[in-house]
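Batch manifest line 183
LIGAND: iron/sulfur cluster
JOB: complex structure
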Amino acid sequence: MSTSTSYPIGGMLFSYYLICPRKAWLVRQGIYMEQESEDVALGKLLDETSYSRNEKHLDLHATAPDGTPLVGKVDRALLRDGVLHETKKGRTCQEAHLSQVRFYLWLLKLNGVTGPGGAPFKGQIDYPALRRSEPVTMGPQQEEALVLQLRHLTRLLEEPHPPARISKRAFCSKCAFEELCYG
Ligand code: SF4
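JOB STATUS: finished
ARTIFACT:
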């Protein structure tokens, strides 16, 4: 059975799915909460105030092997160094953030784009508030996991009803959807 969708899957949606499948489903329905957009605005501000501007934003488009259209907005790319940068406020959802960057690296690979000397692009997550950075690598194992997660996500988005809430109530208390989920 084909699991591809006709609408694109973005890196942010993919990251939401890894944090909470229900959140990804709600966002795909077009439901955005106010705090969510404030967080995005804050992230953008961090991005624009923390680094020099000799770097490029990238809008990526690709098609997964199963036909699913994929899109990605990369915070900053140092093309000469072959490094994609993603800015985050904190490390609470680090695994999801790592996968989001790997998603972008995969989009480049699907487009046949390589870095200097034909080497694959690398990733880096920057935490300006913490004054630290985390390198992101992408090997065959991570790519396999990513493809599997993407397949699960596309299936989930076809469901007529949202999945159950996650069990981490403490995490939900910081989520913009808390009132919707528990109200
Ligand atoms: S409140 Fe909890 S269950 Fe609801 S979308 Fe947010 S993280 Fe998921």
